[in-house]
Amino acid sequence: MSRCRNRSFGGVLLFLFFFFFFLWDVGFSADPFVFYEFTVSYITASPLGIKQQVIGINGQFPGPLLHATTNWNVVVNVKNHLDEPLLLTWDGIQQRRNSWQDGVSGTNCPIPAGWNWTYSFQVKDQIGSFFYFPSLYFQKASGGYGGIIINNREVIPVPFASPDGDLTIFISDWYIKSHKQLREDLENGISLGSPDGILFNGLGPFRYNDSLVPAGIPFETIHVDPGKLSNQLQVYYGLKPTNTGSFLCVLLNSLNINVLVFLETEGSYTVQQNYSNMDIHVGQSYSFLVAMDQNASTDYYMVASSRFANTTATGVAILHYSNSQGPVSGPLPDPPNDQFDSHFSMNQARSIRTNVSAGAARPNPQGSFKYGDITVTDVYVLLNRPPELINGIWRTTLNGISYVAPPTPLKLAQQFDVPGVFKLDFPNRFMNRPPKLDTSVINGTYRGFMEIIFQNNDTTVQTYHMDGYAFFVVGMDYGIWSDNSRGTYNKWDGVARCSTQVFPGAWTAILVSLDNVGMWNLRTGNLDSWYLGQELYVSVVNPEVTTKTELPLPDNTIYCGLLSYLQKGQQQRVSFSAAGSFLPKSGRNFLFGLVVMSSSVLFG
């Protein structure tokens, strides 16, 4: 929940006015609202001991945690204090009926420098750990990301004991070059190369080796309390790591943590299995339950080591027990296998399965949606390749098409019937023709059931993400996918998530129920491949226009491209600048009492 500065009575009135405005405007139900204010700006930081310009939110890097509960309505007023346009996207938030708030180039015009724009969305039927980040101009490589935690409603039982505390961790590969320099390199055909380091929560590695880690690098210390005697009280923490990096898969490991009990990934409760380490691919989020049961003679290392890349970059944080007797020393824990052993990683990924007997955001068991019995209506085999020259510039492709973002967002062009902005003709398989630049969109069937196979012909691990949905990961293997590969699919308890890895020379298959109307981005999570064109959009349209399946165009929409003539002046913008960002405990009950009471008055 957010905390905010003391405000004047006039500020409270302004706040309530805009609350009623949003409640009426977007037609949300009587579920509670939570308000945040994000000021996105450059700040000076030294993640790897060298001063550089990073993107902070409210002066923080990483940005503040956004907390909500299932079905709550979230309002985030974003002020763009950068020197270039900005969009924030809410990775994993499904934006039910509301792709207007998705924050990607195909749904929203960018927030110009010096402007602000207010996102308003409901976390409908979701729980879990997610994150937000800037989606344009390679800005994510300079930061601007933060976490999203969606808690269960109290009426829904949780299939594990409540932890004694939560440890939210952002792991990220990091470059000393700015995002502007990195994107210029990519445009000139220069690869990103090895990252300069791996960060824990925006901080560089602990100096575990004087010859490998320079002095003066700030590092992360994670504070925990120990359990008592093992036969009495045990202390458990919910460990929530997210890979917010640009392209590097990392392996999370610690000598202190003997067992990671897997609980949840990207909104799905999983079969509770024990792991000693976990590969976390770009854009993926997990939740584990860990016991703090080691002796506290010293602190401990927590390590994020690189996987499937020619780099020695290693992230090192310190796990500090409150009764620790001294600092940690000595070598890092050994990784469990060769860093290029993708067979180990694939088997680990296959072992992640849905807990079909547990409810999640809803009381009905997750297994009650029998996806394996549903008839597939559309099949797309999406093939990627390494960067290649198209019209003299380096680009990446899916099925031979490198996506070009038009000046007019696809969703706005669709809303206003603007011709010529995009074509509903994305091929369902790779076509034997030269690669091309295009704005080609998949024409999804509303309430259809789509099978997507990602075929990775690149030399690096790719992660693919789909906005608007959680999809079922039903299979992955090496070689070329064929119709016979369906015989290996998991049709019962495949995990439902929004990001999945695809190993080089291998394929991954997903199934997705197209029940969420909107224009939805399907992209690689690898920032370099995404920037060079490896993305597309899936259009899902209900032939019957109704607010039951799609909310109306927001009143505060920013217009650009061919619709620039509709843009109103800045005085039309919504601003919560008098309210601040976060609520102290002393003001929380007062404000939310007003919110809940007021909404019940409006809607009975």
Automatic annotation (TrEMBL):
Transmembrane feature ranges: none
Coiled-coil region list: none
Pfam families referenced in this protein's UniProt entry, alphabetically: Cu-oxidase, Cu-oxidase_2, Cu-oxidase_3
InterPro entries: Cu-oxidase-like_N (IPR011707), Cu-oxidase_2nd (IPR001117), Cu-oxidase_C (IPR011706), Cu-oxidase_fam (IPR045087), Cupredoxin (IPR008972)
Chief location of this protein within or outside the cell: membrane
Keyword set, alphabetical order: Cell membrane, Copper, Glycoprotein, GPI-anchor, Lipoprotein, Membrane, Metal-binding, Signal
Molecular function via GO: copper ion binding; oxidoreductase activity
Co-factor requirement: Cu cation
Name the UniProt record assigns to this protein: Monocopper oxidase-like protein SKU5
Superkingdom of the source species: Eukaryota
Subcellular location per the Swiss-Prot or TrEMBL entry: Cell membrane
Membrane topology, record value: Lipid-anchor; GPI-anchor
Record domain Plastocyanin-like: where: 40-154, 166-324, 408-543
Gene Ontology cellular-component annotations: plasma membrane; side of membrane
Protein family according to the UniProt entry: Belongs to the multicopper oxidase family.
Cited SUPFAM superfamilies: Cupredoxins (SSF49503)
